[in-house]
Amino acid sequence: MATPAVRMFRRLEGLFCVYKPSGVHWKLVRDSIETNLLKVLNATPSQPLPQEVRFLAQPSTETEAPKGLTLSATSVPVLSKHPLVSGPEFQNIQVGVGHRLDAFSSGVLVLGVGNGNKTLNDLYRTRVTRDYTLEGEFGTATDDFTHTGGVVERSTYEHITQDKLERVLAMLEGANQKALLMYSNVDMRSQEAYEMAVQGLLGPEGKSAPILTGLRCIHFQPPNFILEVQCLNETQKYLRKVVHEIGLELRSTAVCKGIRRTRDGLFTLQDALTRHHWTAADITQAIRQYHSSKKHRKHSLSWDNLNYILLSTDSALIQSS
């Protein structure tokens, strides 16, 4: 029969997401959550100790004549099962981390508990896209593409307009769209490509270079600007390099001041638990919400991939005409 702690742990198994603040390593986030869960699991009321029958010597009185040792069957608790002897019921639990964020990035970080780790691996074998907001600043280039790195160049930026920036973004998005289609190894004018797009399966086969599936400017006030990015197989270092290359394309320089992940697959900022909610109760509720939302989204279409099919088909028709 399962103990109360085991029953609670089974309710915790699954996927959820938290908000990782900037300046905190993802390992510290994972360890904090694991520690919180262990404390709650081991604080649950334990079951009564099992009993065993032992034959114990009966105390003899002075009035009784010595007739040898008298034994009687007695039920006593099994002290080897006591928590003070055996230790806590849960010594450790496996908390897995999905697509990681480096220490200087913030946003949605997906984690799995127990058998949720297998689901986590299955999730990232699919073509999961992620959304980011990138804060950039024109006029400076550094050795690590961040605003805190060593400055290697300064340049003017007064000639940059929002129209020029958006043209560069459109060029980058088009180049990455071609890369996505190339890595997919599917004829974009075929029925197979359309069916894969409907099912959300259109994307690179296996490992590929980072691909930007969407790129737009949501704020422009020189020298500062903010980009919204959708991507596959990216790293935060790659995204900082993208900001740097955008500056070069505009005959200037640029550094990345901040990276925030706003979506990772099905998980969004609205689903992310802040630090004060990294408790067993909130995590259990978040896992339940994930399972319910997964059922509702199971048959949803991948509109991004459909757009790629339509754009690619239009391009193909234009080239053939």
UniProtKB/TrEMBL annotation:
GO biological process, one term: pseudouridine synthesis
Pfam name, any one: TruB_N
Domain Pseudouridine synthase II N-terminal: 93-236
Listed InterPro entries: PsdUridine_synth_cat_dom_sf, PsdUridine_synth_N, Trub2
Name of the protein this chain belongs to: Pseudouridine synthase II N-terminal domain-containing protein
One Gene Ontology MF term: RNA binding
Lineage of origin: Eukaryota, Metazoa, Chordata, Craniata, Vertebrata
Gene3D superfamilies named in the record: Pseudouridine synthase
Gene designation per UniProt: TRUB2
Taxonomy, superkingdom: Eukaryota
Protein family (similarity comment): Belongs to the pseudouridine synthase TruB family.
